[in-house]
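User: Design a sequence. Structure:
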């Protein structure tokens, strides 16, 4: 049997495929707006394995499969044998004999890789501690919709060098935009991910400097899922890394603001920015649906 095609990070697609997915997501969005029935995945089943909580990822994948004529099964560790210690390899071999494609949200990225290695169907990364590639598909659809091509533009990442930041690094490489990253020194993104993208990336410690002349400002929570014990220390480390009016005052006038959500108003972003005219976070959240439908179509048809 040939190896299934997985989507564990953005680097599992090439630049042209990324662009095709963005265009296709916009087409699928328009089809949904005009109530066009399109069911390319009739009788197909998506398995969704969640080690961590989710609102957007779960609902967008589940709704997307139903709209495509298929269905999705939500699997949480609370009620599967995976949660009682059944090996990841065994779970992958069993589940992948029953469903057509699997989305996995894990803590360790290695768990996801292990799962994919033993799966006979495509595996999608629905967030790991290292990457969140599905969110980047949605973010890029949102940028293209609001401002056109991102090639040559400047994007500023503010806050934690986390899974979202890592996927932005991959996106900068594929779509050829400049990425300014402002983090406290001890929360920089992983060094090995930066190596392939040195031409696109500039590191900052001063958030307002990083925002100068930028076209898109992106941030995320200071404490990601699984890091709750570090909350106090992180709040102290990130206290100057809030996206607020002062920071947005340094960007290009046309700059927009994104956040993958859930957001903590008063921490990484001020309420007036996330609710303000530059914020496109609700479009960004909706675009999870359309972007992932494009991805499911790519991997399954
Ligand atoms: N942005 C995102 O992945 O949201 P959920 O955790 O709600 O899925
Ligand atoms: N960085 C966040 C993203 C949540 C969608 C986390 O991993 O919790």
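Assistant: Done.
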């Amino acid at each position: 049997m040939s190896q299934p095609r997985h989507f564990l990070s953005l680097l599992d697609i090439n630049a042209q495929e990324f662009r095709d997915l963005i265009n296709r997501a916009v087409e699928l969005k328009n089809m949904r707006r005009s109530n066009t029935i399109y069911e390319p995945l009739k009788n197909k089943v998506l398995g969704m394995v969640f080690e961590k909580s989710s609102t957007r990822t779960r609902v967008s994948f589940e709704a997307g499969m139903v709209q495509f004529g298929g269905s999705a099964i939500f699997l949480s560790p609370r009620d599967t044998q995976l949660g009682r210690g059944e090996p990841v390899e065994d779970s992958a071999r069993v589940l992948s004999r029953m469903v057509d494609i699997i989305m996995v949200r894990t803590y360790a990225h290695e768990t996801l890789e292990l799962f994919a290695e033993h799966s006979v169907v495509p595996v999608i990364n629905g967030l790991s501690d290292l990457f969140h590639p599905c969110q980047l598909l949605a973010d890029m659809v949102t940028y293209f919709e609001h401002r056109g091509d991102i090639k040559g533009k400047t994007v500023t990442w503010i806050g934690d060098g986390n899974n979202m930041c890592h996927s932005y690094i991959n996106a900068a490489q594929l779509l050829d935009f400049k990425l300014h990253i402002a983090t406290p020194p001890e929360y920089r993104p992983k060094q090995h991910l930066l190596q392939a993208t040195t031409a696109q990336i500039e590191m900052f410690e001063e958030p307002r400097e990083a925002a100068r002349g930028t076209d898109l400002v992106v941030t995320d929570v200071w404490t990601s899922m699984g890091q709750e014990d570090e909350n106090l220390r992180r709040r102290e480390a990130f206290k100057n890394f809030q996206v607020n009016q002062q920071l947005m005052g340094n960007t290009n006038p046309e700059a927009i603001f994104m956040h993958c959500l859930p957001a903590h108003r008063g921490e990484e972003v001020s309420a007036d920015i996330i609710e303000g005219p530059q914020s496109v976070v609700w479009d960004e959240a909706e675009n999870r649906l359309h972007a992932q439908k494009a991805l499911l179509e790519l991997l399954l048809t």
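The longest helix spans residues 281-300. The pocket of phosphoric acid mono(formamide)ester (ligand 1) is lined by residues 54-57, 127, 135, 260-261 (CB under 6 Å).
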